[in-house]
Amino acid sequence: MYAAYEALPSRLKQRLEGRHGVFTYGGRRKATALLNEEDRDWKPVLHPIIRVHPETGRKALYFDPGKILRIDELEEQESDALIVELTERMIQPDGQYRHRWRKGDVVIWDNRCSYHKAAGDYPPEEDRIHWRVSIKERA
Fold first, then answer.
1. Higher-confidence position of 90 and 20
2. How far apart are CA 100 and CA 110, in angstroms?
3. How far apart are CA 119 and CA 113, in angstroms?
4. In what order do the strands lie in the sheet with 20-23?
């Protein structure tokens, strides 16, 4: 998401500066079918659209087209147009890493400055194991 932010035109960076996205699991499509019924009514949370990585100091886009509901404090039409534009801009070939999986591979990424999406480039009958690990910052 560093590359996505850096590739934005100046006018768009300025428009997004200080703005927050309203996010929830399933986003605007309300795609919550994979959740247990009791987990389907998540309260939306706000996150800055542009965030500064706490360790590198670099700006990155914080945006997930599958989880965003709207951009806070914008009219619906303006928010929708901005979401469409960001979605089109965020996944560009020169900002992607695509892993070619081999048995025994382990891939780790930093969610604070990257966006991940399964490519579906493996046979569905193959087992894949995923673990989410959160590392707590020391106080």
1. 20
2. 19
3. 19
4. 45-48, 20-23, 68-71
Structurally, the chain folds into a number of domains equal to: 1
H or E stretch at 85: helix 76-90
pLDDT tens digit sequence for 35-70 = 667 766 778 889 999 999 988 999 999 888 888 889
pLDDT tens per residue, range 84-107: 999 888 777 777 788 888 888 888
Q: Check which CATH number belongs to the domain holding 65 and give it.
A: 3.60.130.10
Distances (CA, A) of 118 to 6, 20, 98, 114: 23, 26, 10, 13
Q: Would you give the distance in Å from CA 50 to the centre of its chain?
A: 11
Cβ of 67: how many Cβ atoms within 10 Å? 20
Q: What is the pTM of this model?
A: 0.77
What is the Cα–Cα distance from 114 to 125, expressed in whole angstroms?
28
Task: Name the residue range of residue 10's domain.
Answer: 1-139
Q: What are phi and psi of 21, to 5 degrees?
A: -95, 150
